[in-house]
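Could you join me in thinking about how sequence relates to backbone shape in a protein? To get us started, please write out a protein record for me. Would you write everything just below, so we can both look at the same thing?
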Amino acid sequence: MSSSSPPLVYVVALEPSGDVLGSRFMTALRDTADSGVRIEGVGGQLMCGAGLKPLFDPSDLAILGIFEALPKARMILLRVREVLDDIERLQPDVLVTIDSWGFTGRLHKALAKRGSKVKRVRYVAPQVWAWRPGRARQLASWIDHLLTLFPFEPPLFEKHGLKATCVGHPVVEDHPGDPDQELFRELLNIRAGSPVLAVLPGSRMAEVKALMPVFGQVISSLRDVNPDIHVVIPTLGSVEPTVREWASSLAGPVHVVTGSKERNETFAIAGVAIAASGTVTLELAKAGVPHVIAYKVNPFSAFVFRRLAKTKYVNLVNILLGRSVVPECLQESCMAEEIESKVTELLNSSYAKEAQKKGFVEALSLLRRQDVSPSTHAAQIVLGLVHRGLARDIQ
């Protein structure tokens, strides 16, 4: 790149959560770069909406667990090679990868072994506090800067010589406004006062298929006690047809909605939620929706994780606070009877609801920055890295 051309930032995000981060990061890059910026890479629908023309559609690479990835190993390696070739062709000023260790780790390792001069940044730290702490040392030898979401993460990497900065979690920069709850209930034909259960079975096909049968049993059991309960299912992307087909098989009033506005409106009217474990727990926490999380993966993946796990919890609110605030129904505990019991307690106990809500406020306070949004902070660091590199080239 010539010194007069706008810098080229290559972004790789494969997961739906990474697509959210990537789209906001792209917008922040353009808003922050005084002389403009060019963006290439791989991303999903949101990043495409932000102007990316992706090298390929990454939806097939959103893989759930260790053994779930094995059948797709050849495709993963082919895609890694495709991205490496594209980076070699374009020679971007900086590569920014977002999460997806199994794929993006291979990119960084290969570029480091080749002695590539492309600056390398990873956005979202591998969860070395949860399992496989050796990844911190690996990453330190492969990349130039790590951007983390949680304040306790940088020291885990800095002790290995890696520059790491907590930019904050993107959930704190969501400002959906005040949804019109009355209008949304009217659109869905839900009477005022009727209880609403939000159901979020995940954004990846494997987790959706694993949780739908269990969540369906929970809904049926809850309706046996309270026939008036309404179920609203926010969904997105490639899983939407599967979710809609499943929802059509459920008895009683079930509403499937798409879009961020409808998702926020669902959270506004929901009294309780059940959700796949993941970032959605922070969205629910910010909306003040008491909830239960569930998860189920291949038994072999679960066995390996448990052998390597360094944390007692998987839910982000629980991890941040170091105590159980949100019930976790995982693997053998991911059973309809157990989930239903915990949901029923939340529906019937104001004390249980308030205890969760107090925990939400405490957890979210640990993620909030007062001066700048997480996406803008990430963009500032990446552009600073680019400009320092350009200054050295000119000298």
